[in-house]
Structure formats: C-alpha cells, structure tokens
Specification:
With about 325 residues, the protein is an alpha/beta fold. The chain contains 14 helices and eleven strands. The chain folds into two domains: about 170 residues, Rossmann fold; about 100 residues, Helicase, Ruva Protein, domain 3 (Orthogonal Bundle). Helix 9 crosses helix 11 and helix 12 runs antiparallel to helix 14. The longest helix has 20 residues. It starts with a helix and ends in a 10-residue tail after the last helix. The model has no long low-confidence stretch (mean pLDDT about 85).
Length: about 325
C-alpha cells in the first residue's frame, strides 16, 4: 500500500467510526474528534463535565463500534485495588487439593471506562498508574501483561467535590488528553429529546477490527514532522515553564509548574493523527495549535494568584499560543 492509499484508508476508517458514533451521540463534534485522536495515538482520555452530558454514553458507544473487549468500572470510595486488578482465590482441584488461582479483574480488557474516577481513594486510583503507563499490572505476586491495544477512558464531575479525591498530578500526566464536555446547543438538545423520549432504538455496529486498528496506530508513528514544526511544539512547552528564560509572561504570572515532556510528545502524536484525518501526511502548525488545549490543560499547575483571580489553564494556553511565534528557533539553555 502506497502513502496515498494509506492516508485514504486511515481517513475512511476515521470517518466510519465518527459516523457510527454520531448515530448515538448528538453534536459534541470536538469531544468525539478529541477522543478518536487519542484512540489512534494510543493514549488515555479524561473526560470532565457535569452529569448528564453523555460522557459515559460516548465511551460505551466507542466500545460498541470497536471490535475490542470492553469493561466498565464504577469508581466508589469503597473500591479496592484488588477490585480492579484481580486477586488470588482458593480453588479445589478434582483430586481434592486446594491451590491459589488468579482471578483477573476488569482491568484486563482493551477498553476500560473508569466512571467517576475521582470518587475512588488515592490507593485505588494509584492501581491504575502502572496499567496506564506500562500496560501491565503486578497482581498476585506476578507481573501480568495487559491486552493490546489498551485504553483507559475516565470521566469525572468537576462540580461535586464532596467525598471525592482529586487526581494527583502524576496520574493526570498519564492521560493523553483532558477533554472538557460542555452543554449542548438548543438544536442539539432538541435532537437529544427526539431520540430519547420517543421509544426509538439506535443500533450501532462494529466498524473497525482490532488488527486494523493496530495497523492504523502504527501508521500514525510514520507521519513525518518537519523540524520547524517540532521546534514550535518544543517552544510551546518551554513557554509554560515559569521563572525560566523561555517562559511566557503569563506563565511567570500564573503558573507554579509547566508541562512535562509528555506534553510535547502528546502535541506531536495528536498532531500526526489530526493531519491524517485531514488527508495529509505531514504535521502543520495548525495541527499543533488545534490539539494544544486538550494536550496541555491538565499538565499546567496554577499558582495562588491564578486561583484567586479565577484564571484557567485554557486562558493561559490561549495566551501562550498568541505569544509564541511560529517561525522562531528553539532556544537551547
């Protein structure tokens, strides 16, 4: 398959997934697009929004249209790590002997919906860390590999903070994207009511086999990035590092800590996927800018001044995108 055929094949697969999800999800184009970009890049997604906006429905629909195993974990304060990873149980053999057998937990699936992840205790949240980063877990005294591909799609409610445990920065950094789910428009809400209050049922089919998904994920890594575009991504990340020579003025004013190197990796990988969805085999400045909010918003740590003035990380990212020129050279310090 030549390059043009590969690009067209990727575009067709993306369009098919998008259309199938659209049978269930009304509107929310940026949310669906961001989730699919993270999927093809092999990253995990954190969906944040108030209840009832379709976060769980989106992930469940994604599990239906992909030919992948899917498990949902409802996070609660009494959930224990063993409830996620699995545990050893005593089994009796036909000969009457008793021996331990490992009972796999719900983490052993291709696509995991971690619903209301911030309701679980830090001990349980940390059980996801090794799985999300290494695609393996240590359970029952042994190292166990997870199935490939492996994705965690987590949801959290930003307004109900009583009885919740905010995710630590180390765990937030392991999410490829943090996507904010907003309210639907009047037309979208009207369509939601038409679909959900009339007894109509929507059936979705599986449109992308596992092997084909793995091939397309491999294609993403082959998309070239010009040196000046890569330098732009580097300068955007360096501009978030307050009290350094490369920091943007707004970062010095409102940030305690900037993005980790994972932020730069996310910018490039997400840019590659977006380029393919647009029928291109090269990453542009526009690709980097388009994915920057979802890639960086959870990797910036606000200082007290920002918290007091109600400044958000999205506002800071928008200003940094304005301040950092596209055509400058990366500064080595």
């Amino acid at each position: 398959m030549n390059t043009e055929e590969a690009i067209q094949s990727f575009h067709d697969a993306y369009a098919a997934l998008y259309a199938e999800i659209g049978k269930v999800i009304v509107g929310q184009e940026p949310i669906v697009e961001g989730t699919l970009i993270a999927l093809f890049a092999g990253g995990h997604v954190l969906l944040e929004g108030v209840p009832g906006l379709g976060k769980t429905l989106l992930v469940r629909t994604l599990g239906q249209v992909l030919d992948l195993s899917f498990n949902r974990i409802q996070f609660t304060p009494d959930l224990m790590p063993a409830d996620i990873l699995g545990t050893n149980i005593v089994m009796e053999t036909p000969g009457g002997r008793r021996e331990f057998e490992f009972q796999r937990g719900p983490i052993f699936a291709h696509l995991i919906l971690a619903d209301e992840i911030n309701r679980a205790t830090p001990k349980t949240q940390s059980a996801l860390l090794e799985a999300m980063q290494e695609h393996q877990v240590t359970a029952g005294g042994e190292l166990r590999r997870l199935v490939e591909p492996f994705f965690v799609m987590a949801t959290q409610n930003p307004i109900d903070q009583e009885g919740t445990y905010p995710l630590p920065e180390a765990q937030l950094d392991r999410f490829f994207f943090k996507i904010l789910v907003g309210y639907p428009s009047a037309d979208e809400l009207s369509e939601v009511l038409s679909r959900t209050t009339t007894g109509a049922r929507v059936e979705v089919g599986k449109v992308l086999p596992r092997d084909r998904l793995m091939e397309l994920m491999g294609l993403v890594r082959e998309v070239p990035v010009a040196s000046h575009v890569k330098d732009y991504a580097v300068r955007l990340v360096l501009a978030t590092h307050s009290k350094t020579e490369t920091a943007a003025p707004i970062a010095n004013q409102y940030l305690r800590f900037g993005s980790s190197p994972r932020g730069a990796q996310t910018l490039l990988l997400a840019g590659k996927v977006r380029a393919l969805t647009q029928g291109r085999f090269n990453v542009s400045f526009d690709d980097i800018e388009a994915v920057a909010p979802s890639a960086l918003r959870h990797r910036l740590i606000l200082n007290f001044e920002a918290e007091a003035e109600g400044v958000t990380t999205d506002q800071i990212i928008r200003q940094i995108l304005t301040d950092v020129p596209r055509d400058a050279q990366v500064v080595h310090v």
